[in-house]
Amino acid sequence: MTNILFVASEAHPLIKTGGLGDVAGSLPVALQSSHTDVRLLLPAYHDAVARAGRLKTVTTLTVPGLDAPVRILEGRLPGTSLITWLVDFPPAYDRPGNPYLDALGQPWPDNAMRFMLLAHVAVTLALGRTRLKWRPDVVHCHDWQTGLVPVLLAPEKNRPATVFTIHNLAYQGLFPYKTFTALGLPASLWSPGALEFHDQLSFIKGGIAFADRLTTVSPTYAHEIQTPEFGSGLEGLLHQRAERLTGILNGINGEEWDPACDPFIAKPYSAHRLQDKLPNKLALQKKFGLPGEPQTSLIGMVGRLVQQKGIDLVLETLPGLMHRPLQLVILGTGEAGYEAALRAQVARYPGRLAVHIGYDERLAHLIEAGADMFLMPSRFEPCGLNQLYSLRYGTIPIVRHVGGLADTVVDATEENLKAGKATGVVLAEARAVALLTAVDRALVLRQNTRRWNQMMRTGMRHDFTWHHSAAEYLRLYKQTVQANRQHQDNEPNRKDAHVPGKRGKRSGPKH
Ligand code: ADP
Ligand code: GLC
Questions:
Q1: Cα(361)–Cα(256) distance, rounded to whole angstroms?
Q2: Phi, psi of 48 (to 5 degrees)
Q3: Which residue is closest in CA terms to ligand 2's atom 12?
Q4: Which alpha helices (H) appear in 55-170, and where do they start and end?
Q5: Which residues form ligand 2's pocket by a CB distance below 6 Å?
Q6: What is the pLDDT along the chain (511 residues), one digit of tens a residue?
Q7: CA distance 17 to 300
Q8: Mutation test of ligand 1: which of 257, 359, 360 has the most ligand atoms closer than 8 Å to its C-beta?
Q9: E strands along 176-322, which residues?
Q10: How remote is the CA of residue 302 from the centroid of ligand 1, in Å?
Q11: Is the minimum distance from the CB of 359 to ligand 1 under 6 angstroms?
């Protein structure tokens, strides 16, 4: 039996701001088996507790620097049998809304403390220093919020193996030096070889430098982040650790995202009943107050309104797009400037452009089902889940050739169309003209119903569920556990384990 502790800062359906929530709410479920015992650890945010159903306190622990105890609440991830532990410390987590940002969209001022606490609790559980009779063989951490877990575990004897997954390198958890001292981290960690990043404390660097194995969420992004264009300043370190880095494509929750039985859409449909997609289009047009026109191409977009997603390109291209025979619906929240700019444009294009600023899970499903095409002109995209949902829903994705988008969407070139492989339209550059050209290609393609339906079916038949990727993670865990055991057996002395790459070697440089 392999025990895995999955540590994340969000997991659907308890709390979600983006794709990390989808992954942390579905990968551990897919990993469960008679050979694998997975537990999910999350902060007990106000909203997560409200959605969690029955919870019981299973243990209480003390954490350095905190005068009150921390409780671990146990429940099941709703709709699954996955044991989920919530870290209950109300001063840190009992606040409604976004887990990372306040009502004005600013990071909570105590974020460093909040996620240091999550790390401390993960480490205490990982080392079996609680009343719980369960210890993991692997601790699998996700993104900067969990970056300190591998750091704190590194010097410990008989520790579990650590895996750190990068979902988005652009979010690094950077804090000033005074936060580093306030957190009480060992002074040796303030070095460019450890947590220091251009005079700041970097949580994500901790995960990258100290975890036994690194993964990211697509093979292409695994290469991209080793280059200055996508590496956000960490490309050198990532390149140095390239042997430990694997790109494993995200999967989707095939039960929640299934057009044949999605409770949030107007009519179920499948690759065998494509005609039943139309009532969803009409429902979507109605929902957004657009004229119900079956022939007009309807393009959907769902996502965080930030530069990553190319929303600036869409705004720049809008006059050109609105010259074409199409309708565009956008659902998103994000930077106030983009929200305001989108709102301002709606009045200029009545009946053509509709925007819903907000977070709405149901509407996201209806857009995936009702749109003919899904737009994702991202500047970078570690994996992207929306294009996977689009493929499953027979909604042709129009995507940029980056990261996971490049790994999952097959461009409708003449050759790919003939071979029956094409599933979408790919644009090479993040430029307005490239975006317009791609949309034009999609509009022309749609006029050929036979080819269009073939593309829809090809995408719908591809298996994007966790099946393959969960098996890859299991292989990686196995290798990592073995390597960790050998490593620990050969290492009586782990005093200077805080020197990444030189763990336990007395000759390692001192920082
Ligand atoms: P990212 O994690 O970078 O935001 P992904 O494509 O991996 O991008 O995942 C985004 C997830 O969040 C998808 O499940 C998408 O449907 C959801 N999502 C994003 N914005 C919204 C929104 N405004 N309303 C509903 N769901 C949203
Ligand atoms: C990040 C990325 C996105 C990815 C998601 C889940 O938020 O931006 O591309 O799909 O994490 O891994």
A1: 11
A2: -65, -40
A3: 167
A4: 90-93, 111-126, 148-153
A5: 18-20, 23, 167-168, 217, 250, 381-385, 404
A6: 999 999 999 999 999 999 999 999 999 999 999 899 999 999 999 999 999 999 999 999 999 888 899 999 999 999 999 999 999 999 999 998 899 999 888 999 999 999 999 999 999 999 999 999 999 999 999 999 999 999 999 999 999 999 999 999 999 999 999 999 999 999 999 999 999 999 999 999 999 999 999 999 999 999 999 999 999 999 999 999 999 999 999 999 999 999 999 999 999 999 999 999 999 999 999 999 999 999 999 999 999 999 999 999 999 999 999 999 999 999 999 999 999 999 999 999 999 999 999 999 999 999 999 999 999 999 999 999 999 999 999 999 999 999 999 999 999 999 999 999 999 999 999 999 999 999 999 999 999 999 999 999 999 999 999 999 999 999 999 999 999 888 887 775 554 556 554 443 333 333 2
A7: 19
A8: 359
A9: 196-197, 200-202, 213-216, 245-247, 297-305
A10: 7
A11: yes
> CA nearest 288: which of 363, 395, 375, 361?
363
| Among 142, 249, 302, 400, residue to substitute to test ligand 1 (most atoms within 8 Å of Cβ) | 302
Q: Taken in order 113, 115, 118, 124, is the CA torsion positive or negative?
A: negative
User: 232 alpha carbon to ligand 1 midpoint, in Å?
Assistant: 22
The token pair at 411 is 């461009």
Q: Which one of the ligands is nearest to 253 CA?
A: 1
Closest-CA residue, ligand 1 atom 20, reads 303
Measured from the CA of 333, which atom of ligand 1 is nearest? 23
Judge whether 184 and 201 are in contact, CB under 8 Å. Answer: no
List of residues 6+ apart from 464 with CB closer than 8 A: 251, 252, 254, 388, 391, 392, 408
- Full set of structural domains in the chain with CATH: 2-251+467-509 (3.40.50.2000), 274-461 (3.40.50.2000)
Nearest to 328 by CA among 276, 378, 392, 398: 398
Pocket of ligand 1 contains residue 264 by CB under 6 Å: no
Q: Which of 23, 220, 248, 383 to mutate to test the pocket of ligand 2 (most atoms within 8 A of CB)?
A: 383
Three-state secondary structure call for residue 23: helix
**Ligand 2 centre and the CA of 381: distance in Å?**
7
Question: Which residue among 22, 357, 392, 464 has the greatest number of ligand 1 atoms within 8 angstroms of its CB, and so is best to mutate?
Answer: 22
Residue 350, preceding bond cis, omega within 30 degrees? no
- CA–centroid distance, residue 384 to ligand 1 (Å): 8
